[in-house]
TrEMBL record:
Segment forming the signal sequence: none
Coiled coil (UniProt feature): 140-174
InterPro entries: Cys-tRNA/MSH_ligase, tRNAsynth_Ia_anticodon-bd
The keyword Phosphoprotein is assigned to this record: no
Keyword line: Coiled coil
Protein name as catalogued: Cysteine--tRNA ligase
Keyword Disulfide bond: no
Length: 186
């Protein structure tokens, strides 16, 4: 579960960064110089595309694709001074892959300019839908079941400890007193 939360966190950071860029695009963003970091990321994107294709051809290897996306997004999140178009291109491709996996339930693969949607009622493009309500509910249910299971286990251990304590208390009784009845009074 922690791995899933970490993966979502990396992607959410990436999409939030991309959202900020799309809302606050610099005036000269179209003619922005592509630096060394941009070139490296674009090469990483091409490699990721090939790796994802291979993973999907390999019995739809979802875990490999998730790892590839995570590695690519980690590179983007840790890079500095990237051209806006580089980040937005990466965001569109990651959105496409995320849509293929059904993580964007209203995904439309025909619109290549759209990026992972957050607010479907907003006229502005949005990049991330932080968590789906059904996912939040499923996690809450799973957590409550785990808590209930842990509580039941603690209660069972407490009952067993109480039984053990009672047995030890009974064992402390003097055998002469234990068999003493009114018939054999002294």
């Amino acid at each position: 579960m922690k791995a899933v939360i970490g993966w979502e966190g990396r992607l959410n950071n990436f999409f939030l960064k991309s959202l900020d860029l799309s809302k606050h695009t610099r005036p000269n963003a179209e003619g922005q110089d592509i630096g060394v970091a941009d070139q490296q990321l674009l090469k990483s994107l091409e490699k990721a595309k090939a790796d994802v294709d291979n993973a999907l051809c390999d019995s739809f290897n979802t875990s490999a694709v998730m790892r590839i996306l995570s590695d690519l997004v980690t590179k983007v999140n840790s890079a500095e001074k990237l051209a806006d178009e580089t980040v937005l291109s990466l965001a569109r491709w990651v959105t496409r892959i995320v849509t293929i996996f059904g993580l964007d339930p209203e995904g439309d693969l025909t619109n290549s300019e759209r990026i992972y949607l957050e607010d479907r009622n907003s006229p502005l493009l949005a990049l991330v839908r932080l968590l789906d309500r059904s996912l939040i509910e499923a996690r809450a249910e799973q957590e409550s079941l785990a808590i209930a299971k842990a509580k039941a286990k603690l209660e069972q251990k407490a009952k067993e400890a109480e039984k053990e304590r009672e047995l030890r208390e009974r064992a402390k009784i003097d055998p002469a007193a234990m068999f003493k009845t009114s018939e054999y009074k002294e």
